[in-house]
Amino acid sequence: MGKHSTRKQEAPPRQDPSQTLAWRSIGCVLMLAIPAISIAGALVTIDSYAVYYIPRQLMGYPVLPDYLFATDGLTTIFTPIAHTKNLYAISVISVAYAIVLGGLISLLYAVIYRIANPRRYGPFDAPPPKIKAKKYRR
After folding, report:
1. Could you tell me if 62 and 89 are in contact, meaning their C-beta atoms sit under 8 angstroms apart?
2. What are the domain boundaries of the chain?
3. 105: left (phi over 0), alpha (psi -120 to 50) or beta
């Protein structure tokens, strides 16, 4: 700004807090629901006939190194993990289900967003440039 010029700053437009709260609550629910659904789906997959297609290296109890059981505190933490049957298979399948489920929800969100067709430019966006390009000829 110059020495003798004054500039009036406009206050930014206020957002609708109810819309923000709704999207935050949907995101919070999805952050909790997607891992729960994917772990439940992995457990159902392990108990079904699809278990024949899972590599046998992922099945069984996990093998942990002996130094993880060196103290009582570590033993308390790692004993339930070591006694969980098919932990590797459950982990791999649940991550795969979470990726697929997250992708489907993102695709659904994109379709709904496209159908709703909000304004292209918001109140904080600059107007699009008005360029009159001439056709280039050699």
Report:
1. no
2. 24-116
3. alpha
